[in-house]
Structures are given as structure tokens and as C-alpha cells.
């Protein structure tokens, strides 16, 4: 916003800080509990940031919708109405994410278990901070606007104070007046169905072309003996291809020279 009073830069920054606090709380708790920190866990902050910023936008949008209802002027009523509209969406999103990652802790790979524990716990903290810390920040920002204070310095601004709620955001107006009616048109709905069918067909074809592959180093702890083993295997033996093993499933008299000779001949023939 161009207004030095209505500008919400600090509100957006606090939304990002809320997600950062969730990451710090999760990492601190897991490290305190002795959960191993592996390299894949370093990707968790990006997931938490995406969900945290999404929750932030939901909260701000619900707050502004509440502000437009002029009969609701009390801060407690405004915040209660904001949580009434936003909390359900935020809660369902958090529950699905937390369940998905905590189910991933059942895997046999220790590094994947650690990643899921760190990330799932971070989602829980992200929800807690959004419902508490960020809600308080919204109220403080509202009080700053009501006091006609500058967004950066928080000093009284020379700009005339306005008590009227801000008009609807242009993006919201676009989806409400143009995109919504366009999408509900009969021909548009038919086109969407055809596009989805084409997308589904391409996706199914793509799934048949996927090749499985994973760097096994990433599935081990940082101090595991497996990592130097795979490094040496790749450095010294990668040119030879996969190993071929011959398994004898019956009892063999290895002390018999004739039997040993037969095994050697069999190995030579295979080679």
C-alpha cells in the first residue's frame, strides 16, 4: 500500500518471523530430545515458510473482511470473527500436513524418520505461533493504524487520520467480478473438464516413464560408516558395473578337493 499508515510491511515480516520461530522451536526441541540431525532436515524450513506465509495471508484476509463490517468495531469482536473464518482453514491444513509427516516416521530409513519428525513438529509449532503470536501482531498493527502512526517509525503521522475501512483489494475484486463469473460459465466449465482430462492423461503417461533412483548417501546419518563406503565404491568400482553373486543353496563338502574344483570351474564358466 502507498499509504504510510495502511502499509503492512511489518505485518508481513512478522508472518515470516512466525514461521522462523516455528522452525527454531522444532529444531531445538528435537535436538534436545536427541533426534539425529541429518542433511535432509535442512530442507524443512522452506516447507514451513510456505505453509506459514499461506496461513498469514488467510489471517490477514479474514481480518480485513471483518474490518469491512462497520458494526464490528471492538478489537475483541474483530479478532474473534477473524479466527472464526480463518482458524478452520488453517487447522485443516496443519492437520493434514502433520499427519502426512508423522506417518512418514514409520519408515525403516533413520534419515527419513528424522526429517519427518523435525518437519511434522515444525508444522505443529507453526500452527501455535499463527494462532497466538501472529494474531497478537495483527491487533497491535490495527492499534497503530487507529492511532494514525507511521508504519516504520510508529510516530504520529501528519497524514489525515481515516476511520473508514479500506476498500476491497483489487485482486479480490478481480476474482469476485471477473474470474468467478468467467469460471462458472457453461462453456468454461466444459473447457476446464477437457483440460483436466488431458492433464490426467499426460500425468498417467509420465508416471509410466519415471525411473526410480536415489542417492543412498542421503539416507544415512552424517557420521555413518555407509557414506565413505558409497564414496569409495563410486570412486574405485563404478566402472565395473553391478556385482553378480552366485549362491549355493545346498550343503557342500568344501573340504573335498573335487568339490572345490567343481565350484571353481562353475565360477570360471559364469565369468
From TrEMBL:
Location of this chain's protein in the cell: Membrane
Keyword Glycoprotein belongs to the record: yes
Residue intervals of the SSD domain: 1-140
Name of the molecule in the record: PTHD3 protein
Transmembrane segments: 9-38, 44-63, 83-109, 115-140, 182-202
Gene Ontology, cellular component aspect: membrane
Keyword Membrane: yes
Lineage start: Eukaryota, Metazoa, Chordata, Craniata, Vertebrata
Source organism: Pterocles burchelli
InterPro entries attached to this UniProt entry: Patched_domain-protein (IPR051697), PTHD_SSD (IPR003392), SSD (IPR000731)
Protein's membrane topology: Multi-pass membrane protein
Family per record: Belongs to the patched family.
PANTHER family with a match to the protein in the record: PATCHED DOMAIN-CONTAINING PROTEIN 3, PATCHED-RELATED
Keywords: Glycoprotein, Membrane, Transmembrane, Transmembrane helix
Amino acid at each position: 500500500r502507498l499509504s504510510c499508515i495502511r502499509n503492512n510491511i511489518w505485518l508481513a515480516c512478522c508472518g515470516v518471523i512466525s514461521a522462523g520461530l516455528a522452525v527454531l522451536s522444532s529444531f531445538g526441541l528435537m535436538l534436545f530430545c536427541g533426534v539425529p540431525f541429518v542433511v535432509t532436515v535442512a530442507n524443512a524450513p522452506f516447507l514451513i515458510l510456505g505453509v506459514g506465509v499461506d496461513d498469514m495471508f488467510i489471517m490477514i484476509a479474514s481480518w480485513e473482511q471483518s474490518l469491512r463490517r462497520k458494526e464490528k468495531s471492538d478489537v475483541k469482536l474483530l479478532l474473534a470473527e477473524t479466527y472464526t473464518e480463518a482458524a478452520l482453514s488453517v487447522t485443516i491444513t496443519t492437520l493434514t500436513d502433520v499427519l502426512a509427516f508423522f506417518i512418514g516416521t514409520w519408515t525403516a530409513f533413520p534419515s527419513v524418520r528424522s526429517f519427518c519428525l523435525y518437519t511434522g513438529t515444525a508444522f505443529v509449532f507453526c500452527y501455535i505461533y499463527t494462532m497466538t503470536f501472529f494474531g497478537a501482531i495483527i491487533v497491535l498493527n490495527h492499534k497503530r493504524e487507529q492511532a494514525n502512526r507511521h508504519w516504520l517509525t510508529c510516530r504520529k503521522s501528519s497524514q489525515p487520520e481515516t476511520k473508514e475501512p479500506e476498500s476491497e483489494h483489487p485482486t479480490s475484486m478481480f476474482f469476485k467480478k471477473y474470474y468467478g463469473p468467467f469460471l462458472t460459465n457453461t462453456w468454461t466449465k466444459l473447457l476446464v473438464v477437457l483440460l483436466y482430462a488431458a492433464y490426467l492423461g499426460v500425468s498417467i503417461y509420465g508416471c509410466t516413464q519415471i525411473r526410480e533412483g536415489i542417492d543412498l548417501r542421503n539416507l544415512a546419518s552424517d557420521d555413518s560408516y555407509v557414506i565413505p563406503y558409497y564414496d569409495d565404491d563410486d570412486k574405485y568400482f563404478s566402472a565395473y558395473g553391478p556385482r553378480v553373486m552366485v549362491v549355493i543353496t545346498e550343503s557342500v563338502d568344501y573340504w573335498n578337493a573335487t568339490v572345490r574344483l567343481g565350484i571353481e570351474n562353475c565360477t570360471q564358466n559364469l565369468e
